[in-house]
Write a structure and sequence with these properties.
about 270 residues, 3 helices
Length: about 270
């Protein structure tokens, strides 16, 4: 179901992608966190034309995990309105990462998608490059090798916002290692220049990005996906668009609060 895939996609930008043809820039994470802070809250509306399909939220708060100072990110999405009678989706993803540098320590996935459920907890050991997976639904535990600087599904969202390459040129791409569902993936985005979008808040100058889709993952090759991210210090995703056979599915920033930096908006 394309809507289900799109809602999952909107948690992060996208995932399960790579590009063997384009030389990708490496992202350097030597600088401290500067694009977001504890208390930030973002809400997105996922819709087909005027018809709402789902709302998704991303919240961030400072906590302690095993006596370590962390930022706790929670992503939650649910179908809404008329669609909910046909397809009930309630997904929660949580990530705990270090508050000085985006390095995941724990990831939780608890989902209900039309009767399909999954409940997994992943603990990361970045020193040993290992991920320990606890499949609570099936009572199965496993360990997996991961690459250096590996992110989880949700920490990637914040990692990219903070360490977006400043010297990237039109047509170049950059990638991040992601561990998800007991597998390692390369997340890859291609930079397509700047574009100003008309939003409910006003005009917003954005970085235009295109995920480089690996065939057979999340979206088919002929389903074009585009992402727009605010071209300011916040690096907030403003819009995601997936072209389908008839029209498009859109994910738009609906509300926000407690950004670390003023949101650069030209009031209509």
């Amino acid at each position: 179901m394309i809507l289900k895939r799109f809602i999952i996609f909107c948690f992060l930008f996208c995932f399960y992608f790579n590009s063997p043809k384009i030389i990708a820039q490496e992202i350097k994470d030597s600088i401290p966190i500067s694009s977001f802070k504890s208390g930030e809250w973002l809400q997105y509306r996922i819709h087909y034309g005027i018809f709402n399909a789902s709302y998704a939220t991303l919240s961030l708060k400072r906590e302690k995990l095993n006596k370590i100072d962390v930022l706790h990110a929670i992503a939650y999405a649910r179908t809404t309105g008329f669609l909910r009678f046909f397809f009930k989706l309630e997904d929660t993803y949580e990530s705990f990462f270090k508050d000085q540098k985006v390095r995941p320590l724990k990831f939780i996935r608890d989902i209900y998608e039309g009767g399909y459920t999954k409940n997994k907890v992943i603990d990361f050991d970045s020193k040993k490059n290992l991920a320990f997976v606890d499949d609570k639904k099936n009572n199965i535990q496993s360990s997996h090798k991961i690459k250096n600087d590996t992110q989880d599904l949700i920490s990637t969202f914040y990692y990219l916002r903070n360490y977006f390459p400043n010297n990237i040129n039109y047509g170049e791409s950059f990638n991040v290692n992601i561990f998800f569902d007991e597998e390692n993936y390369d997340f890859n985005l291609k930079f397509m220049g700047l574009e100003t979008l008309d939003t409910k808040f006003g005009k917003v100058e954005c970085l235009k990005l295109i995920p480089l889709v690996q065939k057979g993952r999340v979206f088919k090759e002929n389903e074009s996906i585009t992402l727009w991210v605010s071209n300011d210090e916040n690096r907030i995703p403003i819009k995601i668009k997936a072209d389908i056979a008839i029209g498009s599915l859109d994910c738009d920033l609906e509300n926000f609060k407690n950004n670390k930096h003023p949101f650069k908006i030209k009031v209509n």
